[in-house]
Amino acid sequence: MTDRELINIAVEASGKAYAPYSNFTVGAALECEDGSVYTGCNIENASYGCTNCAERTAVFKAVSEGNRRFRRIAVYADSDNYCMPCGVCRQVLNEFSPELEVLSVRGDGRYVSYSLKELLPRSFSMND
Fold this sequence. Notes:
Oligomer: single chain
Number of strands: 5
Order of helices and strands: HEEHEHEEH
Radius of gyration: 14 Å
Structural class: alpha+beta
Number of helices: 4
Largest sheet: 5 strands, mixed
Protein backbone atom coordinates (compact mmCIF):
# COMPACT_ATOMS: atom_id res chain seq x y z
CA MET A 1 0.00 0.00 0.00
CA THR A 2 1.33 3.44 -0.88
CA ASP A 3 1.51 6.37 1.51
CA ARG A 4 -1.19 8.12 -0.52
CA GLU A 5 -3.55 5.14 -0.32
CA LEU A 6 -3.15 4.98 3.46
CA ILE A 7 -3.65 8.73 3.72
CA ASN A 8 -6.84 8.53 1.65
CA ILE A 9 -8.21 5.96 4.07
CA ALA A 10 -7.41 8.29 6.99
CA VAL A 11 -9.15 11.18 5.21
CA GLU A 12 -12.25 9.04 4.76
CA ALA A 13 -12.15 7.99 8.42
CA SER A 14 -12.13 11.64 9.51
CA GLY A 15 -15.61 11.98 8.01
CA LYS A 16 -16.92 9.61 10.68
CA ALA A 17 -15.57 11.64 13.61
CA TYR A 18 -17.86 12.81 16.40
CA ALA A 19 -16.49 16.22 17.37
CA PRO A 20 -19.38 18.52 18.37
CA TYR A 21 -17.27 20.38 20.96
CA SER A 22 -14.02 21.11 19.15
CA ASN A 23 -15.25 20.78 15.55
CA PHE A 24 -11.77 19.34 14.88
CA THR A 25 -12.27 16.04 13.10
CA VAL A 26 -9.38 13.60 12.86
CA GLY A 27 -9.02 10.35 10.96
CA ALA A 28 -6.39 7.65 11.30
CA ALA A 29 -5.47 4.61 9.23
CA LEU A 30 -3.26 2.04 10.94
CA GLU A 31 -1.44 -0.42 8.70
CA CYS A 32 -0.49 -3.70 10.37
CA GLU A 33 2.50 -5.83 9.48
CA ASP A 34 0.16 -8.38 7.84
CA GLY A 35 -1.14 -5.66 5.49
CA SER A 36 -4.53 -5.19 7.15
CA VAL A 37 -5.68 -1.63 7.88
CA TYR A 38 -7.77 -0.42 10.80
CA THR A 39 -9.36 3.01 10.83
CA GLY A 40 -10.20 5.35 13.64
CA CYS A 41 -11.72 8.74 14.22
CA ASN A 42 -11.86 11.01 17.22
CA ILE A 43 -14.90 10.58 19.43
CA GLU A 44 -15.62 13.45 21.83
CA ASN A 45 -17.71 13.46 24.97
CA ALA A 46 -19.26 16.20 27.09
CA SER A 47 -16.97 14.95 29.86
CA TYR A 48 -13.88 15.76 27.82
CA GLY A 49 -11.64 13.27 29.63
CA CYS A 50 -13.77 10.51 28.09
CA THR A 51 -12.81 11.64 24.57
CA ASN A 52 -10.84 9.19 22.45
CA CYS A 53 -8.40 10.16 19.71
CA ALA A 54 -8.49 8.71 16.20
CA GLU A 55 -5.15 6.98 16.65
CA ARG A 56 -6.18 5.13 19.79
CA THR A 57 -9.52 4.20 18.23
CA ALA A 58 -7.62 2.51 15.37
CA VAL A 59 -5.17 0.79 17.75
CA PHE A 60 -7.93 -0.50 20.01
CA LYS A 61 -9.84 -1.86 17.02
CA ALA A 62 -6.73 -3.65 15.76
CA VAL A 63 -5.81 -5.10 19.14
CA SER A 64 -9.39 -6.20 19.82
CA GLU A 65 -9.22 -8.16 16.54
CA GLY A 66 -5.94 -9.83 17.54
CA ASN A 67 -3.53 -7.64 15.58
CA ARG A 68 -0.67 -6.19 17.63
CA ARG A 69 2.14 -5.52 15.16
CA PHE A 70 1.90 -2.26 13.25
CA ARG A 71 3.90 -0.90 10.34
CA ARG A 72 2.69 2.70 10.06
CA ILE A 73 -0.16 5.06 10.76
CA ALA A 74 -1.53 8.02 8.80
CA VAL A 75 -3.16 10.76 10.86
CA TYR A 76 -5.24 13.41 9.05
CA ALA A 77 -7.10 16.59 9.97
CA ASP A 78 -8.43 19.33 7.72
CA SER A 79 -5.99 21.84 9.15
CA ASP A 80 -3.21 24.16 8.01
CA ASN A 81 -0.88 22.27 10.37
CA TYR A 82 0.35 18.69 10.19
CA CYS A 83 -1.82 16.50 12.41
CA MET A 84 0.48 14.94 15.01
CA PRO A 85 -0.49 12.26 17.54
CA CYS A 86 -0.87 13.54 21.08
CA GLY A 87 1.39 12.26 23.86
CA VAL A 88 -1.10 9.67 25.07
CA CYS A 89 -1.48 8.27 21.54
CA ARG A 90 2.29 8.18 21.10
CA GLN A 91 2.58 6.13 24.28
CA VAL A 92 -0.17 3.71 23.22
CA LEU A 93 1.41 3.26 19.78
CA ASN A 94 4.78 2.67 21.44
CA GLU A 95 3.31 -0.16 23.52
CA PHE A 96 2.90 -2.23 20.37
CA SER A 97 5.28 -0.85 17.73
CA PRO A 98 8.20 1.32 18.84
CA GLU A 99 9.55 1.27 15.27
CA LEU A 100 6.27 2.60 13.80
CA GLU A 101 6.29 5.15 10.97
CA VAL A 102 3.92 8.09 11.49
CA LEU A 103 2.51 10.00 8.51
CA SER A 104 1.17 13.35 9.72
CA VAL A 105 -1.18 14.89 7.17
CA ARG A 106 -2.64 18.38 6.84
CA GLY A 107 -5.79 19.50 5.05
CA ASP A 108 -4.16 20.16 1.68
CA GLY A 109 -2.88 16.57 1.57
CA ARG A 110 0.75 17.38 2.20
CA TYR A 111 2.38 15.14 4.78
CA VAL A 112 5.54 14.52 6.72
CA SER A 113 6.92 11.21 7.93
CA TYR A 114 8.49 10.57 11.33
CA SER A 115 9.52 7.52 13.24
CA LEU A 116 7.68 7.07 16.51
CA LYS A 117 11.08 7.16 18.24
CA GLU A 118 11.58 10.70 16.90
CA LEU A 119 8.20 11.73 18.30
CA LEU A 120 8.60 9.91 21.62
CA PRO A 121 12.27 9.88 22.60
CA ARG A 122 13.21 7.94 25.74
CA SER A 123 9.81 6.35 25.88
CA PHE A 124 8.37 4.43 28.82
CA SER A 125 8.00 0.73 28.05
CA MET A 126 7.34 -2.60 29.74
CA ASN A 127 11.11 -2.81 30.30
CA ASP A 128 10.81 0.11 32.72
